[in-house]
Write a structure and sequence with these properties.
Elements (H helix, E strand, L loop, with lengths): L8 H20 L12 H8 L3 H13 L3 E4 L3 E4 L4 E4 L6 H6 L5 E12 L2 H7 L6 E11 L2 E11 L16 H8 L4 E10 L2 H7 L6 E11 L2 E11 L3 E4 L9
């Protein structure tokens, strides 16, 4: 004889799936933005006519997937999504933002054509008197700043950048689409936000930030140096390695 299924089990499972689906849609659609507080267990139980245990299991599952965070005595809140970027790849910032199911925008805040100074020459291995374009660009995810980009482009190897306004395409994506590169170097560090960075990223001064500096070279020489600064709680870096040291 088959064991009798406990009464109410099938109903609870169906309610669990329904509640989970409803809450996931509210979060992933953006109807409940990061920081939004979800209903308490007792309120979910009353709303769906289920046990508090079922409501608790739903919230626990959402927490395990990273969609919400549960705080003792405060409730459950929609988590701030964290973008993941591959350390050993030249990634596209727009793709990072899209992966979070958030709308992407960018704005060029400063663009200057000038002669390289001593610091520039170190960053790009340039000779004295070399010409470059210096760009500051802010990338946003939804209504929040996502990344501050500070970039130098070597006009000797990328002369067309001298007249490019970067109004339709962000500098990084523009370079990837037009200039072949054959070598790249990443430098990663953690910093505390200066007053200028805090203002640009809309974060508290001295907040933790993740900085990725990258240099790329093409067949004709150095192409670009870029410093990408992210709020530390919204970004992570991922690298995959294989035996023998190949990444």
């Amino acid at each position: 004889m088959n064991a009798q299924r406990p009464a109410g089990t099938e109903k609870e499972q169906t309610l669990h799936s329904r509640i989970l689906g409803d809450l996931e849609r509210q979060i992933l659609s953006g109807a409940w933005p990061p920081g939004h507080r979800l209903p308490f267990e007792v309120d979910l139980a009353a709303q769906y006519g289920c046990s508090r245990m079922t409501a608790n299991k739903v919230l626990t599952q959402l927490a395990r997937t990273g969609l919400i965070e549960r705080r003792k005595k405060s409730g459950s809140f929609v988590a701030q999504p964290v973008a993941q970027a591959a350390v050993l790849e030249i990634h596209d910032i727009e793709a990072e933002v899209r992966s979070l199911n958030l709308p992407y925008t960018f704005a060029v805040e400063k663009r200057v054509r000038r002669t390289a100074n001593a610091a520039d020459r170190l960053h790009l291995d340039l000779t004295e008197g070399a010409a470059l374009v210096a760009i500051t660009c802010l990338h946003s995810a939804g209504s929040r700043p996502f990344c501050l980009e500070e970039r130098l482009i070597n006009l000797e190897t990328v002369p067309e950048a001298a007249t490019e306004e970067f109004s339709q395409m962000a500098p990084g994506a523009w370079l990837i689409s037009r200039v072949p590169w054959n070598a790249a170097e990443h430098r990663i560090q953690a910093i505390s936000a200066s007053a200028a960075i805090a203002a640009a990223l809309d974060i508290p001064r001295h907040a933790a930030c993740l900085v990725v500096e990258r240099r790329t070279w093409g067949a004709s020489g150095p192409v670009t140096f870029v410093r990408l600064t992210y709020p530390g709680d919204r970004h992570s870096l991922v690298a995959r390695f294989h035996p023998g040291g190949e990444a």
